């Protein structure tokens, strides 16, 4: 046959390939198929031989472990510690091979990770201290280091009503959320007013600078160029000769030097 539910064979090359339906060891462990090889297929007679192909399926670790007790990880796991005993967690793995369905238990996090311990092989829980009851929080457990689950636990004794305690926890949670919400709104309002104050101060300063500049531009005294009349006295130098040389007066600023202009 050119094709079965699991195998497909090429009519000319004889190459066998698997189909989209993969073998699952949990459903089938062995598989057999009859292979026929014929020559001169386009005309008769043709000679054929037959081969029965037997396939042994090998199991792989393709199933993740999951928790069966407690049955729901979404609900709060309420533990009554009045008789001083803690429950035992139970998990299951659908792999058939023992090396693939081995399950171990480890606590890897949560708010109660320092208050509770767990047996690595059995999943038995142990409370490390009884002086802190009631105890409420989360526990993150790893199953065979493949699946991580988070449990919410309430451990109480006969002095605590679990339902009233949970109601008080819910009310406290609501109050905390309301407080954070109001605080967030107040922060937004304060930030908004601070921005308004900053922008008002900025525009006031810009307006003040503009008014000062406008006042400066409108003042006629500020716009009239200032003039200064310089006066000096010519220096008359008499030489020993008959001729007299009169040195013209010159003007300069700072340390600049100008050569004398001499008129005879």
From TrEMBL:
<keyword id="KW-0677">Repeat</keyword>
<feature type="domain" description="Cadherin">
    <location>
        <begin position="2"/>
        <end position="67"/>
    </location>
</feature>
<dbReference type="InterPro" id="IPR020894">
    <property type="entry name" value="Cadherin_CS"/>
</dbReference>
<feature type="transmembrane region" description="Helical">
    <location>
        <begin position="125"/>
        <end position="145"/>
    </location>
</feature>
<dbReference type="InterPro" id="IPR015919">
    <property type="entry name" value="Cadherin-like_sf"/>
</dbReference>
<keyword id="KW-0472">Membrane</keyword>
<feature type="transmembrane region" description="Helical">
    <location>
        <begin position="178"/>
        <end position="204"/>
    </location>
</feature>
<dbReference type="GO" id="GO:0007156">
    <property type="term" value="P:homophilic cell adhesion via plasma membrane adhesion molecules"/>
</dbReference>
<dbReference type="GO" id="GO:0005509">
    <property type="term" value="F:calcium ion binding"/>
</dbReference>
<dbReference type="InterPro" id="IPR002126">
    <property type="entry name" value="Cadherin-like_dom"/>
</dbReference>
<protein>
    <recommendedName>
        <fullName>Cadherin domain-containing protein</fullName>
    </recommendedName>
</protein>
<keyword id="KW-1133">Transmembrane helix</keyword>
<dbReference type="InterPro" id="IPR050174">
    <property type="entry name" value="Protocadherin/Cadherin-CA"/>
</dbReference>
<keyword id="KW-0106">Calcium</keyword>
<keyword id="KW-0325">Glycoprotein</keyword>
<dbReference type="GO" id="GO:0005886">
    <property type="term" value="C:plasma membrane"/>
</dbReference>
<keyword id="KW-0812">Transmembrane</keyword>
């Amino acid at each position: 046959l050119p094709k079965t539910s699991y195998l497909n064979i090429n009519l000319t090359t004889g190459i066998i390939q698997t189909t989209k339906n993969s073998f699952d060891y949990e459903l089938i462990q062995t598989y057999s198929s009859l292979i026929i090889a014929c020559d001169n297929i386009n005309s008769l007679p043709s000679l054929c031989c037959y081969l029965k192909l037997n396939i042994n399926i090998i199991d792989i670790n393709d199933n993740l472990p999951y928790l069966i007790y407690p049955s729901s990880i979404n609900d709060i796991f309420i533990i009554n510690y009045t008789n001083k005993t803690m429950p035992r967690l139970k998990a299951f793995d659908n792999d058939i091979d023992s090396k693939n369905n081995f399950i171990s238990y480890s606590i890897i996090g949560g708010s109660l990770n320092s208050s509770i311990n767990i047996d690595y092989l059995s999943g038995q829980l142990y409370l490390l201290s009884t002086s802190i009851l009631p105890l409420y929080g989360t526990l993150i457990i790893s199953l065979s280091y493949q699946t991580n689950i988070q449990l919410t636990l309430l451990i109480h004794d006969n002095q605590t009503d679990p339902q009233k305690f949970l109601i008080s926890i819910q009310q406290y949670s609501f109050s905390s959320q309301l407080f954070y919400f109001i605080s967030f709104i107040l922060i937004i309002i304060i930030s908004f007013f601070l921005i308004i104050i900053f922008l008002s101060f900025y525009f006031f300063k810009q307006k003040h600078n503009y008014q000062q500049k406008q006042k400066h531009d409108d003042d006629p005294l500020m716009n009239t160029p200032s003039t200064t009349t310089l006066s000096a006295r010519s220096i008359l130098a008499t030489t020993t000769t008959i001729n007299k040389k009169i040195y013209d007066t010159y003007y300069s600023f700072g340390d600049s030097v100008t050569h004398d202009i001499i008129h005879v």
